[in-house]
Amino acid sequence: MDYTKNGNLIALRVDRGEEIVACVKTVCEKERIRFGSIAGIGAVGHAVVGLYRVAEKKYYSNTFDGEMEMTSLLGNATEKGGMAYLHFHANFAKADGSVVGGHLNEAVVSGTAEIFIRTAEGSIGRRTDPVTGLNIFDL
User: Which value, to the nearest 10 degrees, does the dihedral of the CA atoms of residues 112, 116, 117, 118 take?
Assistant: First the structure.
């Protein structure tokens, strides 16, 4: 991975074999980002995405392996417990044109991934919502 910073915009390249969520977290920790938006595209060979079932307060994950285009990565960087807290959703297109997606847990790059992190001053915290069990914005 490598990145460059220009004003409030970071351009991050994630290389073959690297895991996207871990690389973004590394940059957010190094740059102390606690308030930002994240978007990206790329190619992966492994992805774990899920769905949160509110009634059960539990995530269910699906694993997908094989060549896929990451057609959309959207997320944000906030903070919880003084550490960077990332929340991502992503879509992955397979060779037959079918698309899978959901809450992103992990994705390993097969070619490259190009990610932009737009930062803002300050921070947004998280708190656990007692009704849903989700870590929601603490505004």
Answer: 180
Distance (Å, whole) CA 64 – CA 49: 8
Token pair for 101: 């997606």
**pLDDT score recorded for residue 118:** 98
Q: Can you give the residue range of the structural domain that contains 80?
A: 2-138
CATH value at residue 52: 3.30.1330.80
Q: CB-based burial of residue 58 (10 Å sphere; 0-12 exposed, 13-18 middle, 19+ buried)?
A: exposed
What's the rounded Cα separation, in Å, for the pair 16 and 45? 9
Number of domains in the chain: 1
pLDDT tens digits along 106-134:
999 999 999 999 999 999 999 999 999 99
- Interatomic CA distance for residues 62 and 112, integer angstroms: 22
Question: What residue type is 18 in one-letter code?
Answer: E
Burial string for 67-97 (b: 16+ CB within 10 Å, else e) reads ebbbeebebbbbbeeeebbbbbebbbbeeee
Helix (H) or strand (E) run with residue 22 in it = helix 20-30
Q: Where are the beta strands (DSSP E) in the chain?
A: 2-6, 9-15, 36-53, 58-80, 83-93, 99-119, 125-128, 135-138
